[in-house]
Amino acid sequence: MASALTSEIPGADPAWHRRHDHPYFKESHYKLQRFVREYVDREIAPNVEEWERNAEVPEAAFKRHASLGFLAASAFPIPKEYVKGVTLPAGLSVDEWDEFHDAIIIDEMARCACLGTIWGINGGATVGGPPPRPLWVATAEGKISCSSSAWTATSLSLFGSDVAGLTTIAKKTPDGKHYVLSGEKKWVTQGRWATHGLVAARTGPAGAKGISVFIVPLDNEKISKRKIENSGVSSSGSTYMEFDEILVPAENLLGKENQGFEIIMSTFAHERLWVGITALRLGRVAYEDSYRYALKRETFGKPLFENQVIRQKFSRMANLLEPTQAYVEELVYRSVRLPSLDFSPLAAMLKVQAAHNLEKISRETQQVFGGLGYSRQGQGQRVEQISRDVRVLVVSGGSEEILLDMIAKQQRKLAHL
Ligand SMILES: Cc1cc2nc3c(=O)[nH]c(=O)nc-3n(C[C@H](O)[C@H](O)[C@H](O)COP(=O)(O)OP(=O)(O)OC[C@H]3O[C@@H](n4cnc5c(N)ncnc54)[C@H](O)[C@@H]3O)c2cc1C
After folding, report:
1. Ligand 1: which of 118, 154, 399 to mutate, most ligand atoms within 8 Å of CB?
2. Which of 4, 54, 73, 392 is the most exposed place for a label (fewest CB within 10 A)?
3. What is the distance between the alpha carbons of residues 320 and 283, in angstroms, rounded to a whole number?
4. Which of 52, 127, 154, 161 to mutate to test the pocket of ligand 1 (most atoms within 8 A of CB)?
5. CATH 3.40.190.10 fits domain 153-258
């Protein structure tokens, strides 16, 4: 049986790494975990500081990431019929790939401790639509394949909290061959280098039943792009875009006209699971770094860890991490077994809780590091980076206030009360 690569610091890694009788994790999961951990430690983590400073992930790194199968594997659930013949990470076959392989990639990628790079190298790489539209999947060469076309990876361009109230407009031309699209979008992740965007626009009446989704080529002089400076996520390519009456071929409509709301909503459940797993792992990274520091930093003649008040901080943080881990594993299992309406409030709960936990852990681990937790260099550097990235996990993928309300409403509806 393969074993996991795991940390010796208690709480720095999930318990399944050391538990070979775990019902969810099989031989291929351990194999994948080792593969991704070695890759992140060797090729990603040592570079994130430079990539974040340069505000981009180099193309060579992106291509390498794609060549190992990470982009193809980012579709969820993996569309087995479209990725036949594609090499998946660790050389696993499409037929053995399951929802826990997906979760392991998300978890291990987040160990690079830099949300900007996680988004910059893998965010929004796969787009798709309901039948009869094919799924457009990133191949090993870093291209998106769809019928005969070959495209480089794409990004998303959607909306704020109020999806149904979005203001980007698309009108069909009289000959029916194109849509004319106008509007704007703030924070298009990867927008600075993506060749195509998944754009939601109003094509019908106000509300959820008047929205369509388009695959839009972004190399167009009528699209203006401006870099956005955020607190963190510098290497994610965050962009402000304006669409000034651009022509989009009618065949680039994803699914059916005015039925885009469902497509948008279908992406959210996995995105929220993704946020949950990522926030949990970023919390573990901050926990591990500060734990190591507390063991060796001496004040008043003894290591920080020898103080009861410091040890309590670690226990409190572990109390946030471990129940969330159990919930993550439960939800990953359910993600392909529950109807999406039942699953979506559960994923939203995870997203809200894990992001909230990370806010607390970020604060406490910075506190353990003292001044070093506020410095971009040195031992507290990863904790400092996380402190700049954490807020966007609370806001994006469904902001806290919106999700908490949605959870209560949807659960009442499901209970027919
Ligand atoms: C760095 C970054 C990258 C991003 N990348 C992408 C991307 O690639 N693709 C993409 O589509 N989006 C992206 N986003 C956008 C993100 O999804 C939105 O910021 C998020 O959905 C919140 O929308 P908003 O910023 O318009 O806030 P608003 O909708 O203006 O809301 C502001 C605040 O008010 C709260 N609020 C809103 N309405 C209500 C209400 N009725 N009751 C109570 N509270 C309310 C919200 O929770 C929020 O806290 C990104 C954002 C950032 C910061």
Report:
1. 399
2. 54
3. 9
4. 161
5. no
* Contact by Cβ (8 Å): 16, 22: yes
- For ligand 1, which residues put their CB under 6 angstroms from it? 155-156, 158-162, 187-189, 230, 233, 238, 392, 395-396, 399-402
Q: Looking at residue 160, what is its pLDDT?
A: 61
Mean pLDDT for back-to-back runs of 10 residues, the chain (417 residues): 89 94 94 98 98 93 86 81 79 94 98 96 59 43 37 45 80 97 88 82 92 88 95 93 94 89 84 96 98 98 98 98 98 95 95 98 98 96 98 94 96 95
Residue 402 CA to ligand 1 center (angstroms) comes to 9
* Integer Cα distance of 107 and 295 in angstroms: 26
- Choosing among 3.40.50.300, 1.10.220.30, 3.60.20.10, 1.20.140.10, the CATH entry for 262-414 is 1.20.140.10
Q: Where in the chain is the domain with CATH 1.10.540.10?
A: 15-145
Interface confidence, given as ipTM, is 0.97
Of the candidates 28, 29, 143, 147, the one whose C-alpha atom is nearest the C-alpha of residue 82 is 147
Which atom in ligand 1 lies closest to the alpha carbon of residue 402? 47
Question: How long is the chain?
Answer: 417
Q: What is the pLDDT of residue 248?
A: 94
User: What is the pLDDT at residue 152?
Assistant: 35
Residues 114 and 393: their CA atoms lie apart, in Å, by 12
